[in-house]
Design brief:
Elements (H helix, E strand, L loop, with lengths): L1 H13 L9 H11 L7 E6 L7 H14 L4 E6 L6 H4 L8 H5 L5 H4 L1 E2 L5 E3 L6 H4 L3 H12 L7 E6 L5 H9 L2 E6 L3 H18 L3 E9 L2 H18 L3 E9 L2 H8 L4 H4 L4 H15 L16 H7 L2
Parallel strand pairs: 1-5, 1-6, 2-4, 2-5, 6-7, 7-8
Antiparallel strand pairs: 3-4
Helix pairs in contact: 1-8, 1-15, 2-15, 3-14, 9-10, 10-11
Bound molecules: adenosine-5'-triphosphate (ATP) and magnesium ion (MG).
The site of magnesium ion has 5 residues, from helix 3.
Length: 308
């Protein structure tokens, strides 16, 4: 209940109100009313629980594959304080989310151009403050997205390892949560722990699993089976198998060259897998809240959790 109350507080901040929190239905209609008719954005948070499983790699290459397919895509690096995405893409940001929070710039001023039209919002590296953002700061980031005059078609969010509030909030806020899992016991147990927290405290019921660094589809499906077997038994969630990316030396080479493999070697095995994944993402059914004509950040699930 504390969690729900905290979310309600944050929600109030998003609509520009202080305490006390608004009744759920009132907050929800205020937020909808505050955002005039705009193009629909699909927010996809990439998480995984364990470090080093390929979250940033998937976020970057899936994001770029979607923009190569002609979509308008933004990628938010929400690994605040460690900043992976700009390093992976060889970008040199002069400003980051911290400047936005300090009121020194707007969200559009942070956008960095990556190849193929992908736009990146960098996280800022080495700033302890960024690694410890509170609810109000998250709310300010969300409000900045809600105020974008031209929301992208896809907003991908790369998250940090672990089960921090930040990861949970960005996952709860999104239309879809992509879980990156690899074939290591700790990856499965950490993904399970994340699913447990997100379903129990944040009312996230559906997850889309992407197996990374596997040898073939059979291995990927086995991994999905392992994760969904325990989750189906103990948690009220659905874990969909959404695709797989092979272990690929080309991908590592691309990382060393600070480029996306889909850009550098579009015919490599991993690049083809990302292309296939992007095609699948584009065929996903409309998100549940498709009726809301606004960027979906922190919409329905926050109110759902607050109403528990
Ligand atoms: N499909 C792949 N094939 C080969 N190597 C890979 C693949 N995916 C990821 N890697 C390797 O794993 C490393 C970690 O990947 P990445 O930084 O994307 O993980 P992460 O989950 O974002 O980590 P962190 O939790 O530290 O942010 C990469 O630097 C790369 O060397
Ligand atoms: Mg990362």
């Amino acid at each position: 209940m504390d969690q729900a109350w905290g979310l309600q507080q944050m929600f109030s901040a998003v609509v520009g109100r202080g305490e006390p929190p608004l009744p759920t239905h009132q907050a929800s209609s205020l937020l909808t009313a505050a955002t005039p008719s705009r193009r629909r954005c699909r927010a996809i948070t990439v998480a995984g629980g364990k470090g080093g499983v390929g979250k940033s790699t998937v976020a970057v290459n899936l994001g770029m594959s979607l923009s190569m397919a002609g979509h308008d895509v933004m990628l938010l690096d929400a690994d605040m304080g460690l900043a992976n995405v700009d390093v992976l893409l060889g970008l040199a940001p002069s400003r980051h989310i911290g400047h936005l929070l300090d009121g020194h710039c707007a969200l559009v001023d942070l956008l960095l151009a990556a190849p193929h039209g992908l736009r990146v919002i960098p996280a800022g590296s080495g700033a302890r403050r960024l690694a410890q953002l509170g609810s109000a700061e998250h709310a300010a980031i969300i409000r900045a997205f809600d105020e974008l005059a031209q929301p992208p078609k896809y907003l991908l969010v790369d998250t940090a390892a672990g089960l921090s509030d930040s990861v949970a909030m960005f996952a709860a806020a999104a239309d879809d949560v992509v879980l990156v899992v690899c074939d290591e016991p700790a990856s499965i147990t950490d993904a399970y722990a994340l699913i447990k927290v997100l379903s129990r405290d944040f009312a996230v019921r559906r997850f889309r699993m992407v197996a990374n660094m596997v040898r073939n589809e059979g291995e990927a499906r086995q991994l999905h089976h392992k994760l969904s077997r325990v989750s189906d038994r103990f948690l009220d969630v659905v874990i969909e198998f959404s695709g797989w990316v092979p272990h690929d030396e080309r991908l590592r080479q691309a990382i060393r060259q600070q480029s996306a493999v889909v850009d550098l070697w579009p015919s490599s095995r991993s690049a083809l897998a990302f292309k296939q994944l992007a095609g699948a993402v584009d065929r996903w059914e409309e998100p549940e809240r498709a009726g809301l004509d606004r960027i979906a950040f922190f919409g329905g699930r926050v109110t759902a959790a607050a109403g528990d």
